[in-house]
C-alpha cells in the first residue's frame, strides 16, 4: 500500500472540505490516488444521502435570477434541514447557481432534470455533483423542491433571508436600466405586500361581491340613505382594491403613487406575477 502522507491528506481536505480522517481513509482505499479518492468520497456521500433521504427538509431558501435584456427569469426553492445551513454562504451560492442555471441554460421540466445540467458558475460540474459535495461537508439533506422559468423580460427580488421571493413578467419598453430597476422594484413590492391579483378584473368576482355586501350592510347600519349608498360603496371599494390589487396598491417605496402609475411612467405593463413563500 502506498504511503499516505500528511501533505496528501491535507491537500485532499482542502479540495473537498471534508474531515482529515475521512480524507485519509479515502486515500488508503484508493492507494493514494487523489482523483480516485475524490470520487470515492463522493460515492460514500451519496450512500449516506440515501440513508437520510427521509429526513424533514423544512428549512431552506428561495433564489431568483433575471436578465431583462435577454428576456428570461427564474425562481427556485432549495430546501435543507436546519436554519444554520440555510443561512450559510455555500448554501446561498448553490441556490443562486441553480436559479441562474435554470434561467440561462436550456430550461428544465423537473428539478431532477435541472440538477443533471452543468452548473452555470462551475461548468466542469453538474449541479447534482456540487450538491453532493456540499452534502459531504454539511451532512444535511438538500431538496430542490420547486422551479419556475419565465421566457420573457422579468424583474426579480428575494428577501434577504430567502424566505420570500417573486418574479414579475413585464411587457412594453423593457430595454434599458430604468425598466430593469422598475421591474425589480415591483417584484420587491410584491414580496412586501403580497397582492391577491394584478388588476381589479383579475379578482374573483365572488370576493368582490362579498366585500360589496359587507360595505353595503355597514353603510346601512350607519343610517346612510339608500340613494347614496351605491356611490359610497364604489368609493369604499377603491380602498379595498388599494389593499389587495397590485396595480392599485400604493408603491411601498413611495406611497404617493400606485404601482400602476410607477409601471406606466416607465412604459411598462405587468403581465404575470410569481410570488413564493418558503415551503408553500
Question: What keywords describe this structure?
Answer:
Helicase, Ruva Protein, domain 3; three-stranded antiparallel beta sheet; 8 strands; 49% helix
3D architecture notes:
There is one protein chain. About 50% of the residues lie in helices and about 20% in strands. A hairpin with a 2-residue loop joins strand 6 (about 250) and strand 7 (about 255-260). It is built from 11 helices and 8 strands. The mean pLDDT is about 90. The strands form 3 sheets. It has a 3-stranded antiparallel sheet. It has a 3-stranded antiparallel sheet with strand order 4-5-8. The longest helix is centred in the last third of the chain and has 19 residues, at about 225-245. It is elongated and about 95 Å long.
Helix-strand makeup class: alpha+beta
- Helix content class: 40-55%
CATH superfamily of one domain: Elongation factor Ts, dimerisation domain
Counted beta strands: 8
CATH level-3 fold name of one domain: Tetrahydropterin Synthase, Chain A
Order of helices and strands: HHHEEHHHHEEEHHHEEHE
CATH class of one domain: Alpha Beta
Amino acid at each position: 500500500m502506498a504511503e499516505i502522507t500528511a501533505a496528501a491528506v491535507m491537500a485532499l481536505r482542502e479540495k473537498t472540505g471534508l474531515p482529515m480522517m475521512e480524507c485519509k481513509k479515502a486515500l488508503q482505499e484508493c492507494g493514494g490516488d487523489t482523483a480516485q479518492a475524490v470520487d470515492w468520497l463522493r460515492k460514500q456521500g451519496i450512500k449516506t444521502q440515501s440513508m437520510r433521504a427521509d429526513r424533514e427538509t423544512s428549512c431552506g431558501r428561495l433564489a431568483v435570477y433575471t436578465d431583462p435584456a435577454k428576456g428570461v427569469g427564474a425562481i427556485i426553492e432549495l430546501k435543507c434541514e436546519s436554519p444554520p445551513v440555510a443561512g450559510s454562504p455555500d448554501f446561498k451560492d448553490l441556490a443562486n447557481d441553480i436559479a441562474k442555471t435554470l434561467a440561462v441554460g436550456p430550461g428544465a421540466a423537473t428539478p431532477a432534470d435541472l440538477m443533471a445540467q452543468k452548473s452555470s458558475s462551475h461548468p466542469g460540474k453538474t449541479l447534482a455533483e456540487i450538491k453532493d459535495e456540499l452534502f459531504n461537508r454539511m451532512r444535511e439533506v438538500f431538496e430542490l423542491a420547486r422551479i419556475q422559468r419565465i421566457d420573457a423580460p422579468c424583474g426579480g427580488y428575494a428577501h434577504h433571508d430567502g424566505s420570500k421571493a417573486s418574479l414579475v413578467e413585464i411587457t412594453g419598453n423593457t430595454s434599458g436600466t430604468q425598466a430593469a430597476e422598475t421591474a425589480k422594484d415591483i417584484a420587491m413590492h410584491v414580496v412586501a405586500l403580497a397582492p391577491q391579483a394584478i388588476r381589479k378584473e383579475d379578482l374573483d368576482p365572488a370576493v368582490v361581491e362579498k366585500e360589496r355586501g359587507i360595505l353595503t350592510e355597514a353603510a346601512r347600519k350607519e343610517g346612510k340613505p339608500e340613494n347614496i349608498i351605491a356611490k359610497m360603496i364604489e368609493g369604499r371599494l377603491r380602498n379595498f382594491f388599494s389593499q389587495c390589487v397590485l396595480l392599485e396598491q400604493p408603491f411601498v417605496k413611495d406611497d404617493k403613487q400606485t404601482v400602476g402609475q410607477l409601471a406606466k411612467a416607465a412604459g411598462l405593463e405587468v403581465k404575470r406575477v410569481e410570488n413564493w413563500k418558503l415551503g408553500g
